[in-house]
Amino acid sequence: MDTDSEQQNGTPDTVATPRSTVSRRAVIGWAGAGVALGGAAVGSVAAATRQDDPAPAPAAATGAEVPFYGEHQAGIATPVQDRLHFAAFDVSEKATRESLVKMLKEWTRAAAAMTGGREVGTGAATGLPEAPPDDTGEALGLPASRLTLTIGFGPSLFDKEGVDRFGLKAKRPEALIDLPNFKGDKLDPLRSGGDLCVQACADDPQVAVHAIRNLARIGMGTVSIRWSQLGFGKTSSTTPDAQTPRNLLGFKDGTHNIAGTDTARLAEHVWAAPGDGPDWMTGGSYLVARRIRMHIETWDRTSLKEQEDVFGRTKGEGAPYGRAKEHDDPDLKAMPADSHVALAHPDANNGLMILRRGFSFTDGTDGLGRLDAGLFFLAYQRDTRKAFVPLQQRLAGSDKLNEYIQHVGSAHFACPAGVRKPGEWWGQALFG
Ligand code: HEM
What we know:
- This protein is an alpha+beta fold.
- The chain is built from twelve helices and nine strands.
- Strands 1, 2, 3, 4, 5, 6, 7, 8 and 9 form a nine-stranded antiparallel β-sheet that branches.
């Protein structure tokens, strides 16, 4: 089987058909020419090239395959892709610990196959004619597209209104808090919470949607989707050398983020360390997801000067006030005190940093002729109590940006360390 990750990582634990008839080398050729070069390959990210290739191209630059197995889950520090399908699942009332474990094992096999550009199980068109195919088929012929699948466990999996459904209560990390209400929140319970989540990121939306759909299909009877969010146009970057993307307010977003190559900052701010909490979370990270609606129509009638004052950065270059270039160190005193950057910058927060990995969304209109659009904010951190919570408390209190946004969905998940090798499964350390 011509799958390069298998050569690097050993035998796959699922036998599946390569999805694309296009050779990976060809994919690398096309995408390498078309995709903006995105810095060096990071951590577990390696190019899907053969081992004898002299200089493997980084996956960020190739649109190829991001290895599924590794110390940390892919989809956190690895380079951000262009598209998102995020799904929060609830475990059904009839499910047991055993059925949940069985599903997680099947999910892991399917995730390893799909992130490797292969079909799930016996495939979309090659299984028993009498049975529904194992794979739904819409990604046939498409390359891996840098698909990453990242799993997280929500507070309610451990304790649902006082009920310990799966014998996990004692394993709930203290950092996996029920998030407090923040000033200005208008949260929709139907777009909040969840027992589990899967973040699917890829450069092709069809590949991301296919992945969530196939996991939901496998989980039928054990879990159901509680809510999901499609995202486009990443609003942050873990590859600072690449061109910074812009959010729907038209500003560069992700300029001062934690780079995927910055192992020191990742260790300090993103990965849970031994002793931080339960062992099963060591090497993992806590994810906060917030659906933030933007009042686009109001923003579009706002002067350029006011827009720039909101962030304390210029709109064109993205330079901090008082400086010339985007990546110049901000001078917080030169910015309005209530500007977003003056409030969120580490210098104003005792050095606090989070890894932002959000995406824009547009979900049609709201019935009043306004776009239902905004930022699906995703942030990873070592301990949410010391990162997102104080930061958001500060922003919710006095951020000038609040006039133009509203938080309408919220969820919190503990994302464990990576699956290190075939045969291991998502949640093994938690359930084991
Ligand atoms: C719709 C909502 C939001 C928009 C449009 C937005 C936009 C931006 C922009 C344009 C920047 C400046 C460029 C950069 O360094 O990335 C920025 C920086 C930042 N934002 Fe936001 N943001 C939003 C929500 C949030 C939230 C909810 C948080 C955390 C609770 C947050 C935390 C940060 C941080 C930590 C920085 C970096 C500041 C620095 O180090 O200079 N943002 N944001």
